[in-house]
């Protein structure tokens, strides 16, 4: 067994709060020290917001769990200070192959357009991801940032009030109470917080189960995503193979609905399935086995007064498409800067309603794509199966049929069309950078655009004049001036100008476009700043 599962990363230590005469009030308390809770805490601490993360665990999650991380979350992790560690350790991949029976039907490439700092995807076990995030927390602590992780702290009761939440926490040394101006629940799909508050999911649970096996083996398979429909080794079902670091391979095998989960997880039942797939001559060792059920569900609202939900605690999708952890990080990216403005008194707390609107939009988009994938992978009628198989047969010979094959539409960043924070589009520019869109990267000599945008409001000018700084109602917006004269690759023009000769973009701290115009108009951009902070 990997030693990482046995080492406490944030062991229990007695907190001064446990000896306080009255419950201590904290600006932000986060429940859950998984990837989303840690990411949320780092985001806030880097902005100077005091945050306490509590978890009844003290180690990384057992098993690889989430393994596929897309380009957009890697860009977010760059701003959190741990993107490079992820990329250095992870397995980069950009080729996927689809098989039907024993035939390769076709392959596809996921490489983004050239001129991006980060790859399309990496594979990396969640336990490494969590370790790197905890390491980043320790770095911030050493720098004096206001962040603390409390392991062995289990939240057993929550009370909600108009201006705060109360928590009762159990520890190895007894229970104690604290208060939070803001409480963020990142405690996973089973979210005890959600249950304690009497909240629930809406959506679908699909009648199918998949076996996940992390297998340690020496194999000469390439670093590609292989997906099988109706393979000889798992007739009538599907299978997936992915490479991870350290000689670990992820194998997913569809099992069907009416199964005994505990029996199916036993090594004596798992190993024959894997040998049927890999061959009797391949030596391997089981590292982790689990069974999951397809679910596409979300909470009706992610904000409940002073309690906010993020990640799997707020929404669940089937794992094909890598939309779980990737969308959870986009939750934290959306919420962090808004909560900072509210805490600093620079925005009304109604700004947080836009977190609800925008991330529910993102969750619905993920659920739609995940549901479609699930329906294609696991057809519910003989007619649906015949149609699917016909599509696969056609895809082997005809390119037009390949987009109809759905083995998991892979994660892409969400565009917040219709957000109340967007200003009307006033630029005849590329659709990919319309208001609400995440900013695509651009090479700038030996550097890239996204690191220059950082995590603050930016006025991006391209061959246009504007003030170096615009301040509006407490919001400071700094200018980043670029020119296509220096655009040797043509990427800046293609991604931000199109046919327009010039452009001015208002970019939010989460690097989403809030407004764009062909030139700077002070009154209109001041109104756009107010709108982007929930004041219009």
TrEMBL record:
InterPro entries reported in the protein's UniProt record: FAD-bd, FAD/NAD-bd_sf, RIFMO-like
Decide whether keyword Cell wall biogenesis/degradation is in the record. Answer: no
SUPFAM superfamilies, A to Z? FAD/NAD(P)-binding domain (SSF51905)
Which residues are in the FAD-binding domain?
A: 27-363
Source organism's superkingdom?
Bacteria
Q: Which cofactor does it need?
A: FAD
Q: Which UniProt keywords apply?
A: FAD, Flavoprotein
Q: Which PANTHER family match?
A: BINDING MONOOXYGENASE, PUTATIVE (JCVI)-RELATED, TRK SYSTEM POTASSIUM UPTAKE PROTEIN
Under what name is this protein listed? FAD-dependent oxidoreductase
Organism (species): Aliiroseovarius zhejiangensis
